[in-house]
Here is the input.
Amino acid sequence: MSAETINENLSAIVARIDAARKVAIRPAAFTTLVAVTKTHGRDVIEPALIAGHRVFGENRVQEAQGKWPALRRVYDDIELHLIGPLQSNKAKEAVGLFDAIHTLDRAKLADVLRGEMDKQGRNPFLFIQVNTGEEPQKAGVPPREADQLIGYARKLGLPLKGLMCIPPADEAPAPHFALLQKIAAEHDLPLLSMGMSDDFETAIRFGATHVRVGSAIFGERTNP
Ligand SMILES: *Cc1c(COP(=O)(O)O)cnc(C)c1O
Here is the structure.
């Protein structure tokens, strides 16, 4: 995809985010576009940086480590979000590299993140991923266990700021966004990471503060 097309797509998504916020009954105070660059290389990422975009999402720690440190040497104000599942044995690298982690989903990972944040003196802000569709193959804490994990993360003093979800692919997303919004409100969590290329406008209606958009900006991914 050409730099020009990436620029046009990026502007179009930003415009659609603004438009969705305008018609939302109670939009969040802000909606940040997390541009998802997984599987893409520097040729695709750099046009977005040149256009002034700074907030990006990756789903694999190792892949992100391979591309972002070099870009950060050129653009020192990049904000990098981990949006994919995190294994405990990658927590050290994740805390070192990312500014936000969207996928805290178990007590054990909370413990490991606490230890790494203390060791490294870095505090990426956290979202708890909630498996709103209770899909067995999907990461995330089941909704009924969310209260407990939120309480535990708070007890550890983790910088927990919000909730994240990925609705089931074959269902209407709105009820899932509504559920996430409800759980977040019950716990006074200000951030909601929800909405992707196909449903970010719906997510904004339900108060999304972070929409994660990949293919609508950078095109279809060849390898998933
Ligand atoms: C890949 C991915 C996205 C972006 O998906 P698109 O449909 O390409 O916008 C969003 N969130 C997560 C967790 C992802 O893995």
User: Anything to note?
Assistant: The longest strand covers residues 32-36. Residues 36, 38, 59, 83-84, 166, 196-197, 212-216 surround pyridoxal-5'-phosphate (CB under 6 Å).
